[in-house]
Specification:
single chain, mainly alpha, Helix Hairpins
Length: 124
């Protein structure tokens, strides 16, 4: 839980101003609110399309995807919609490190529970 909290705060601070495009949406799957990021990270733990979300928040400006390379706060205040381009390096580091750290932690806890059960059975 602590790791998810830390990564949620980090996700809001890094990706809150990224332009929303598929598979992100305005309702739930975005990085603008802490709870939304927490739910996205829970989905990532389960393995549900975390790579698509990583691609969406790391999307650079192309002909088919128009976004602002520099964040313009006055434009954000007027429209209320973020429009900044994503940073691919930050997105890859964020999701890959989260996946490795959390999945390895959960795997270690699972192995520890199994080993503890074997120790308990051996001591009986």
């Amino acid at each position: 839980m602590l790791l998810m909290f830390v990564y949620s705060v980090m996700g809001v601070s890094l990706f809150a101003t990224v332009k929303i495009a598929e598979p992100l949406n305005v309702d739930i799957v975005n990085f603008q609110k802490f709870l939304n990021v927490f739910l996205i990270l829970y989905r990532a733990i389960c393995g549900e399309n975390w790579h698509l979300i990583m691609d969406a928040i790391g999307r650079p400006r192309t002909l088919s995807f128009q976004c602002e390379s520099d964040f313009n706060f006055s434009a954000y205040q007027e429209t209320g919609v973020p429009g900044q381009c994503g940073n691919r390096a930050y997105a890859i580091f964020y999701f890959v490190s989260f996946t490795l750290v959390v999945k390895l932690t959960i795997l270690n806890l699972f192995i520890a529970i199994i080993l503890q059960r074997y120790v308990d059975l051996y001591n009986q």
